[in-house]
Amino acid sequence: QVQLVQSGSELKKPGASVKVSCKASGYTFTDYAVNWVRQAPGQGLEWMGWINTDTGNPTYAQGFTGRFVFSLDTSVSTTYLQISSLRSEDTAVYFCARGSLAPSYGAFDIWGQGTMVPVSS
Amino acid sequence: QSVLTQPPSASGTPGQRVTISCSGSNSNIASNTVNWYQQLPGTAPKLLIYNNNQRPSGVPDRFSGSKSGTSASLAISGLQSEDEADYYCTTWDDSLNGWVFGGGTKLTVL
Question: How many Cβ atoms are within 10 Å of B24's Cβ, its own excluded?
Fold first, then answer.
């Protein structure tokens, strides 16, 4: 079936880096974009940006430039979110979600299960 | 501070009809379609309504969406206990050139 499966939770110390993976299956990987959404504890959803799986071009939302990097490996239908110089305020659940390659259209119809990244010394 | 404004909470008794509002502006709701997501406790969000009023396969017709001008609404009729969840509206914002979410509404079934 169509699904996105994310890597498991990772406890990190401030200043470290983390790389979260999101593996797609059940559909043609390059036909859809992958979006990243952050949810801090007890808070709402925040769009981080998206990656065009056809061109590999990433786009970052305001507030998610510099320390955040989206990448992909089409050979294994997987996208990645890397966060460097982690801070306590990066503690959140990170979701990947399938969307349209025309970014302002469509909806996020398939979501990964989420990856919890606690940042604590 | 979310770009889209939703009431933080809503409630109803089983069988009732509940509506959740989502207020935006000319650069977002007025210019683009609205989607709604349901997030049950401890789970990933699920697409509930897309393109203002369309339901994905498998979503009961108790859920409906509408949009007018700079506002949108989600209505849930025949409220059930399993509808207790957080609900988020979202749309594209032409000024920000990105997706924006409402702050979410926690629905309690009394």
Answer: 25
Tell me if B35 and A103 make a contact (CB, 8 A cut-off).
no
Q: How far are the Cα atoms of A9, B18, B47, B59, B104 from residue B4, in angstroms, in the given order?
A: 30, 19, 18, 24, 9
Among B36, B27, B40, B12, which Cα is nearest to B101's?
A: B36
Hey, is the C-beta of A35 within 8 angstroms of any chain B C-beta? Answer: yes
Find the CB nearest B45 among A45, A49, A105: A45
Q: Is A70 on the interface with B (CB under 8 A)?
A: no
The answer to whether B28 touches B94, Cβ cutoff 8 Å, is: yes
Residue A108 is encoded by which pair of tokens? 């996020």
Residue B44 has its nearest CB partner, among A35, A62, A114, at A114
Per-residue pLDDT of chain A (121 residues; tens, 9 = 90+): 999 999 999 999 999 999 999 999 999 999 999 999 999 999 999 999 999 999 999 999 999 999 999 999 999 999 999 999 999 999 999 999 999 999 888 999 999 999 999 999 9
